[in-house]
Amino acid sequence: MAQYVVLIYENESDYAAASPEVYGEVMDAHNRFAKEVTARGGTIAGGNALQGTDTATSIRGDVVTDGPFVETKEALGGFYLIEADDLDQAIKIAAMVPARFGGVEVRPVMVMPEG
Amino acid sequence: MTTADDVNHALADAHRHEWAQVLAATVRVAGDLDLAQECAQDAYLSALQTWRRDGIPRNPGAWLTTTARRKALDSHRRAAMLRARLPLLIDPGDTSRSGRSGDGSPFPEKQLVEMDEIPDDRLRLVFTCCHPALAREAQVALTLRLVCGLTTEQIAHAFLVSESTMAARVTRAKKKISGARIPYRVPEAHELPARLDAVLTTMHLVFSTGHSAPTGDALVRPELVDRAIELCRVLADLMPDEREVRGLLALMLITDARRTTRLDEAGDLVLLEDQDRSRWDHAAIEQGRVMVREAWRGGRPGRFVIQAAIATLHAEAPTFADTEWKQIVDLYDLLLLAWPSPVVALNRVVAVGFLSGPQAGLVELDKLELEAGRALSTYHYLPATRADFLRRLGSTQAAAASYRLALALVENGVERVFLEHRLAALLTP
Predict the structure, then answer these.
(1) How confident is the model at residue B215 (pLDDT cuts 50, 70, 90)?
(2) CB–CB of A108 and B90 under 8 A?
(3) R_g over Cα of chain B
(4) Which residues does B196 contact at the CB level (< 8 Å), separation at least 6?
(5) Of B84, B85, B181, the CB nearest to A86
(6) Closest residue of chain B to A2, computed from CA coordinates
(7) This prediction's pTM
(8) Number of structural domains in chain B
(9) B266 is a domain residue
(10) With an 8 Å Cβ cutoff, are A87 and B180 in contact?
(11) Is residue B220 in some structural domain?
(12) Average pLDDT of every residue of chain B
């Protein structure tokens, strides 16, 4: 078993323009995703949705600036921490993550050698 | 008495034909691509001395595999610190993973069985090298390095990049395989079509890079063509029910059957219509033709089977004038459904030009340029096709302009000379 983080990148302006129904659908989709993963024997070890990049503050050295670290059309908006046997299983789970206004990136978590 | 020559010959032969199997079987013991590669190389080195002393074993592949696996096992035993190392290659079939055997190897010694019990792992190796999580160029580099056993220098030369660039590419890909835990396995049935397509695309890319080198002075890079055909043969043996594998093999055989007629004595390009058909490799064509016929049956043919069928029609025509252009255009229509690519569409337009004449071809070409001009904007065959239609229509000035456009894009030396000759012939009355 290994841990992977699924980073969700989506277009924030699409969400800003979305109706309350769309928000409801997205919430439902995430709840369904969690159930589906469990039903298939996978494990979600954690995860969160983030507030928008307009609430982000970046710090480089001792310079504090308003805004995300990197300006992109599709911004990091949330993540899941999942457990999977290998990349194939991780991709299968990640492909189920709802991201209607963008997509996701899978990154293996670094394992530190036991001292 | 075994001479040094005998041994060298046997070793070269074993490298060409057994390398992938030796490496693939060693990966399972090593649990790590780099270590496996080292051990396989060591085994070939040991063979050089041992075979001279004791003679060439009856089954060189088995000897090499057993030796390489033993070296991998020894290495695990020696390096007790490896115990702390992460499991680098994920073998889903391995249930002992959680509780490693006492010698530090991911596999207990009793699994180091005789050759005839070692399962054929070459498919696992191929599918791991062509995993979709790796970039296409990394898939190609890894396949040539690990499955075909080419050196980094050879691969770098074939793709005209520096050796350090190619080495970095291979290293990065291997690092991703272990870091992201790309599993060492053959995909399950339901994922096989997509995964196999990636493998075939990689092999086709190796072949076509060898067949018509996109850059450089040589038109053909035979080492790539030969390795692609060999690997495809292995795959066809290991996956006899996969029609697309046979289709690709047939396509390669029939296309490569024309190799010796594609250049004249001066080293200049000879077009299909001017090639000496009696010098084509008719045995290879026949082999391919039988494969296409078999692969065509049993449902909708895939893109490689259709391409092979097109190649067959070209190969079967006794003369260029006798080519069945109608059937070829029909097959291109079918191919576009299976594989909607602008390059396929351009090839179809060329066939239309021979079926219905250059004027009809030009009309189709205009349509294509409107739809897919952007995707083909750096593809020199696009203006070259237009130039040829215009030349055949007698529009000298317009044809010359298109040849110049093609010349600005072409990167292969032999094709450049061909286009220059065409342009020169056009301008000399």
Answers:
(1) confident
(2) no
(3) 25
(4) B187, B239, B242, B244, B245
(5) B181
(6) B181
(7) 0.80
(8) 1
(9) no
(10) yes
(11) no
(12) 88
Q: Decide if B56 is inside a domain.
A: yes
CATH, residue B38 = 1.10.1740
> Tens digit of pLDDT for each residue in A62-76?
999 999 999 899 999
Contact call for A87 and B84, based on CB within 8 A: no
- Best probe of the B interface among A82, A86, A106, A111, by most B CBs < 10 A, is A86
* Token pair recorded at residue A96: 């189920």
* Residues whose CB is less than 8 angstroms from the CB of residue B18 and which lie 6 or more positions away in sequence, other chains included: B60, B61, B64, B65
Question: Chain B: residue nearest A91 by CA?
Answer: B133
Could you confirm whether domain A2-108 is CATH 1.10.1740.10?
A: no
Q: Which domain holds residue B74?
A: 1-85
Q: How far is B147 from chain A (nearest CA, A)?
A: 21
H or E, element range at B265: none
- How far apart are alpha carbons B335 and B346 in whole angstroms? 12
Q: Output the furthest CA–CA distance in chain A (Å, rounded).
A: 52
For residue B117, what is the enclosing H or E element?
none
pLDDT, tens only, B109-140: 444 444 445 567 888 999 999 999 999 899 99
- How far is the C-alpha of A31 from the C-alpha of A9, rounded, in Å? 18
In three state form, how does the secondary structure of B160-201 look?
CCCHHHHHHHHHHHHHHHHHCCCECCCCCHHHHHHHHHHHHH
Please indicate whether, in this complex, the C-beta atoms of A108 and B181 are within 8 angstroms of each other: yes
Domain locations in chain A? 2-108
Instruction: Please state the rounded mean pLDDT for residues A23-27.
Output: 94
B240 interface with A at CB cutoff 8 Å: no
What are the DSSP calls for B91-123, one per residue?
A: -TT-TTSSS--TTS-SS-GGG---GGGS---HH
β-bridge partners, A58: A65
**Residue from A87, A110, A111 to probe the interface with B (highest B Cβ count within 10 Å):** A87
Q: Does A62 touch chain B (CB under 8 A)?
A: no
Residues B255 and A35: their CA atoms lie apart, in Å, by: 52
Give the mean model confidence (pLDDT) for residues B212-230: 85
Residue A58's SS3 state is strand
Write the Ramachandran bin of B182: left for phi over 0, alpha for psi from -120 to 50, otherwise beta: beta
Using an 8 Å Cβ cutoff, are B383 and B349 in contact?
Answer: no
Pick the range with the lowest mean pLDDT from A102-111, B74-83, B158-167, B210-219: B74-83
